[in-house]
Amino acid sequence: MRWQTNEQTATIPMRLVGPVKIIGPEVNAMVPLPLATFEEPLWPSTHRGARVCTEAGGITAVIIDERMTRSILLEADNIIDANEALIAVSQQKEAMQAIVAQTSRYARLLDMHSQLVGNLIFLRFEFHTGDAAGHNMATLAADRLLDWILARFKNLNYVSISGNYCADKKASAVNGILGRGKYVVTEVTISRELCLRLLKTTPEKIVQLNIKKNLIGNILAGSIRTANAHFANMLLGFYLATGQDAANIIEGSQGIVYAELRGDSLYFTVTLPNVIVGTVGNGKGFDFVQENLRQLGCLEERAFGDNARRLAIIAACAVLCGELSLLAAQTNPGELMKSHVKLERHKNDEGSCSA
């Protein structure tokens, strides 16, 4: 039976919220935030966060690391052969870099990590992939490296081009520790007056809720390197609006919120070690995606990889805005549910709404 395509277009509501002021070495501008979502309260909530942060002087954002990963899996007959091969491979990074350079003019081997489990060899390659998110680029480079290793070490056998030590589209400790995608940190300091006027709460309430809900609650849940309320909501909306692989919100939503009192003000920061975005490649050809990337300033002539870094920073700032607004709402009994009922109940015949 032959597979046949019946291509259709799925329409998801999309709006621009903000803009938000972003400051830092990579981005220094007022930027809109495109979000495609079925969850209508996400738009006004993220918009409120953007307004607060802008009136507070803006969100400071930096990228501290970036890499795309692919892990290959090989096996030897015994642990002696496996260990000797692993030691030998780890000494050939210059030769491996030359192989990677042949696969793409943009790909560059940054590092390699390994794990030995019995006679199984897990090699996690880490690449710089320019303005592309880099899934295919990293896989192609890893495939060529795999061929090279098997040709040099006849006592090794192929198991898989992807050994799950990447870890691709799965929650894991390794991505939170070593990173996969862009590692972005953002921060804002908000006065008590702004908290009271726009967020309808106090700095103390947000700090305490973050400790009790995001930190302690996530520990009780057994979350993996995660302490946040709903990073995935903003990331999914932003990913869909900008043509990203939406499944990457799985590792992307791993991240930590930290909040503290600074004098009479709220210091609020979000850390996202796995923001996987690109401005070129699959998914970027749609008209709405091109228009959103253009409005975000991510289609400019810039240095190698700078458009993708800019996009990652804007994504992280959207996360901060939505996270701040939701936490503020949850400090007030009933506020979260009231907003969902107000915005969504009229569209549901049964009168129910999502929480």
Notes on the protein architecture:
- It is a single chain.
- This protein is an alpha+beta fold.
- The chain has two domains: 14-65 and 181-346, 3-hydroxy-3-methylglutaryl-coenzyme A Reductase, Chain A, domain 2; 67-160, Alpha-Beta Plaits (2-Layer Sandwich), CATH 3.30.70.
- It has helices at residues 42-55, 79-90, 93-103, 135-152, 173-178, 192-199, 203-221, 231-241, 249-252, 287-295, 306-330, 335-344; strands spanning 14-23, 29-36, 59-76, 108-117, 120-128, 156-160, 181-190, 256-262, 265-275.
- Strands 1, 2, 3, 4, 5, 6, 7, 8 and 9 form a nine-stranded mixed β-sheet that branches.
- The longest helix has 25 residues, at 306-330.
- The two termini are 43 Å apart.
Unreliable stretches (pLDDT < 50, length at least 5) are: 349-355
Overall CATH architecture of the largest domain: Alpha-Beta Complex
- The gross shape turns out to be globular
Measured distance between first and last alpha carbons: 43 Å
Beta percentage is 15-25%
Could you say which structural class the secondary elements and strand pairing correspond to? Answer: alpha+beta
Order of helices and strands: EEHEHHEEHEHEHHHHEEHHH
Q: Which fold does the CATH topology of the largest domain refer to?
A: 3-hydroxy-3-methylglutaryl-coenzyme A Reductase, Chain A, domain 2
CATH homologous superfamily title of the largest domain: 3-hydroxy-3-methylglutaryl-coenzyme A Reductase, Chain A, domain 2
The quaternary organization reads as: single chain
Instruction: Please tally the β strands and state the result.
Output: 9
Total number of helices: 12
Our Rg estimate from Cα atoms comes to: 22 Å
CATH class of the largest domain reads Alpha Beta
Question: What count of structural domains?
Answer: 2
Characterize the largest beta sheet: strand count, sense, and whether it forms a barrel: 9 strands, mixed
Mean pLDDT: 92
The proportion of residues forming helix, as a percent range, comes to 40-55%
